[in-house]
Amino acid sequence: MRLIHSALLLSLSLLYIPNPISAHFFTNVSSIPPWLNATGSNWESFHNLSGHHFGQSVDGLNRLKSYFHYFGYINGTSNFTDDFDDALKSAVETYQKNFNLNVTGTLDNHTVQQIIKPRCGVADIVNGTSAMNSGKSNNATSSFLSIVARYAFFPGEPRWPEGHYDLTYAFNPEENITNEIRGVFARAFDRWSSVTPLTFELSTSPNSADITIGFFNGEHGDGEPFDGILGTLAHAFSPPSGRFHLDAAESWVVDDDVNKSTSLAAIDLESVAVHEIGHLLGLGHSSVEESIMYPAITTRTRKVELQSDDIMGIQYLYGANPAGNNGSSTPSSGRETSDGGGALISSSLLSIRAFLAVGFGFLLFF
Ligand SMILES: [Zn+2]
Ligand SMILES: [Zn+2]
């Protein structure tokens, strides 16, 4: 079924030739024009749903159900009602588990605040199976090794095959990609190659490159339309697809301090690129808030350092960098250390990874 779906998407994308659109890039955060200083995305209206709970009927709940459907939390058709029914309650509870919120099943303020945050367009749950907190057995903890890992893979653990670790990437030729933008992506790829045997080289041939990068508006041929300013920011497909798409409507900050932006819509390009490359290499979403593979990102925020959860996940798939760099990023802090006693990143990681896979049920998929 999934193969048929993939084949269908592939044929759709071959038939569909999107109009070339120039994305909004800013090398100076103060140059973001006021009309791009969005007060919020389409999801802002979800604020009106705050405080509602099971049994109620509220205008707009059908849109929230569509949201949960898009990210894998509700199955079925897209003909949703405004009733707060069992399916929505269950979706809210699963979402709350995945995003480390109190599991109330109601649309409390913290939950709504999380829902409206800009995020990656890749689903958290595929084929009814969650790879985040809600799908982990026993919270994936171990007192023996004091490791808490939340990293996850796509169904079947797709990865680039051994012998094809030297990957090439190319930009959609219609884009006006400057040296600064090329530099952002090169740095993002370097972060992953520094902890794995993978290498990434810029190619000028999108037709033959392993990874193709493009900025698009709205529908762009893969059945996953972008939604304008904020909301979904980007998405990427698991190996060996190599398709890496970003929403052209965002205010992409390139080579400037995104924290200094006064625009409420400023998004750091490198932060999103590092996350999406994780998908291109085979990682799914993680519930570790500090990790790169956490699905949401706050505007005006830079988050580019791989965390221990990201590094453990990627090294499970590919092993460590043969040059001996097993990851210089700082270990995740916060909830990882609070409930698991700290994360472990060391040269012994590879020897324990098989144990991790069997012992903790890490091979749970989307
Ligand atoms: Zn993602
Ligand atoms: Zn796409």
Give short descriptive properties of this protein.
2 domains, disordered N terminus, binds zinc ion, Collagenase (Catalytic Domain), three-stranded parallel sheet, protease, signal, 9 helices, 366 residues, Muramoyl-pentapeptide Carboxypeptidase, domain 1, calcium, 11% strand, globular, alpha/beta
Short description:
By secondary structure, this protein is an alpha/beta fold. The chain has helices at 2-15, 61-70, 86-98, 109-115, 179-193, 269-281, 308-318, 335-340, 349-359; strands at 24-26, 125-126, 129-130, 141-142, 147-148, 166-171, 199-202, 211-216, 234-236, 243-247, 251-253, 266-268.
The CATH level-2 architecture of the largest domain is identified as: 3-Layer(aba) Sandwich
Strand order of the largest sheet: 7-6-8-10-9
Low-confidence stretches: 1-17, 138-148, 328-366
> How does the major sheet shape up?
5 strands, mixed
CATH superfamily caption of the largest domain: Collagenase (Catalytic Domain)
Q: How would you classify the quaternary structure?
A: single chain
How many domains, as an integer? 2
Number of strands: 12
Mean pLDDT: 80
